[in-house]
Amino acid sequence: MAESIKLRGMTWDHSRGFTPMVATAQRFHELHPEIDISWSKRSLQEFADRPLGELAEQFDFLVIDHPWTGFAAVKQILAGHLKTKPTDDWLAVLEPADIWCAKLHDWSGLRTTEAYQVHQSDGCAYRTTRCPIRIDGERIYNPKGSPVLGEHTKNILNELE
pTM of the predicted model, to two decimals? Predict the structure, then answer.
């Protein structure tokens, strides 16, 4: 039997916040019995009275319905929490869970990635990123390069007449 994973979440004490999280966790546990997610709740005022960074250290999930939460999280609190582990550690958790995420690169870093490919078309080489879409976890590749500039202009103009 797989190792049991216990996760904790915190949300606000409203039926829009707590009830859907508990119901989702129960259904998720039915589909994945090795993972157990428990939810706690607190008022929005209690969230305001305590730094979100502290909650982020104590809980695996935080669900807060407040218009400025996302801004605060990205700009200040959770950004710092994300720095506690290397990017590859976060990607190892998020990608298998089918959460759309990717490593950010600077220009020199991007050019060293497998996704940065050379496409050939009529002897011309173009450097570009590949299609980011995956279907059932498989990357989509097309051996045909991009069209030559103007290759389809005549056909398009004919269609417009």
Answer: 0.43
